[in-house]
């Protein structure tokens, strides 16, 4: 019997038909005598040799390039549309609920994301669980340790996205055994896992990252596509900023360690998302600010630009239908009121469209941070971590001046004035500046919703925005204490009786 990887919901069959179920629907890896099989003693072998391990590691890295829907495109839908930065853009039944707060467990976007996140966890687990048993002496101990560390960083990234979206989630760190009539009792919990608490999920993320720090590769200034020690430090800073494990001293620690790794703000903000002079390639890759990015080159471009606006290297391609993530009037007003011209022009662009869902077709705004098929998608960048350090100084140690210095640094890069002394000495006023700076600096980078959640500002901000933003679709349900987590897909609950729906859905 073939061995399959825990945990993909596409593989689950109901217990009533368990023994007649082939479990062959959408397997993660097809059978191969290279990547799996049985040795001479009849024992399961996940990886035959070093080449198979390296091939699987390439598969993990390829998720950053080839599977952008869940970790980037849908995350922007949730973080910017479900917050106040953007409208859905299209009026599709599965997309609009993120704008008008009508999300239900039947939403197919969330179902797709859950499945793909779980597939990613399974891919990471396969390497982590099996690499030490690979019978190939050319795979050294140091190589095994490094590859396992990289896979743990990848798993931590996936679990971090999941726990921020859904809260209590199954935390899977093993592979499931074969299902037979003799083993069903032993493997049931592997195929139908219970939910771990939010705190337990964060503890696993923390453990993965701390263990990975020992053996992951160092930062390479010329290649920001790898799961390095610096990626682990960035993730740890973000993890310790969140409520379940909140430790502002550690946020500061890991932000400072990233500075020691060589990270700093790029002097010119346009280097981060811009194009070269003749719009034939990205302006820069591997900036000193980028911590982890997915890179794209001619012949294997980034397709998600089709979803957000024009592809500047193929101007009229896929521009006949309404796009996702339409900048909101409230965000545009915030940029304008602040006089923030540089970040505004790098975040939002206007074209003539053939539709007018939210604005007149002849002057329609689009999200601009993914503007061509050759632009990198930056998963983590130093400005985010630096602003988290300012947040930690302000809310943790009440170091108002330290926080203000960082905010001035962020603002100074885009020619905004320093914070006046009357604000620098007022904790509440300075926090208002911090909230605005994170919103404008990180617009359309998948952070706004999670910021509002972390600050306990969801009800205050989101219930008010519908009245002051004339372009936003009418609110269906008010935001309340149950709105901080999204519904677990009902299709997943139907497959796994051990899962419970989040309150409020």
Automatic annotation (TrEMBL):
InterPro entries: SusD-like_N (IPR033985), SusD_RagB_dom (IPR012944), TPR-like_helical_dom_sf (IPR011990). Its main location: membrane. It is found in: Cell outer membrane. One of its GO terms (cellular component) is cell outer membrane. Residues 1-19 form the signal peptide. It comes from the Bacteria. Residues 362-505 form the RagB/SusD domain. Gene3D superfamilies: 1.25.40.390. Residues 57-240 form the SusD-like N-terminal domain. Keywords: Cell outer membrane, Membrane, Signal. The keyword Signal applies. Belongs to the SusD family. This is Starch-binding associating with outer membrane. It comes from Sphingobacterium wenxiniae. The lineage of its organism: Bacteria, Pseudomonadati, Bacteroidota, Sphingobacteriia, Sphingobacteriales.
